[in-house]
Specification:
single chain; about 70 residues
Length: about 70
């Protein structure tokens, strides 16, 4: 009966943001996202350069878990 419903997303997982300072793997920094300041941790294997895009993998408490957008 309801076959073509849009996919409903919950939370910011999958969204992109801009990293304002270099973010090495396993390290944290502060990031502005949706008008608020968040802690972010790089779960990837390479440094995310300042000004580069990162993708949110998941939210862990009040921390955005991100990796470089490829």
């Amino acid at each position: 009966m309801r076959r073509n419903l849009p996919i409903m997303r919950s939370g910011p997982a999958g969204e992109l943001l801009i990293v304002t300072e270099p973010l090495p793997p396993g390290k944290t920094c502060r990031i502005e996202f949706r008008g608020s300041s968040w802690s972010a941790i790089n779960c990837g294997e390479s440094v995310i350069a300042a000004g580069a895009r990162a993708r949110i993998e998941r939210v862990d408490g009040l921390t955005l878990v991100v990796h470089a957008d490829t």
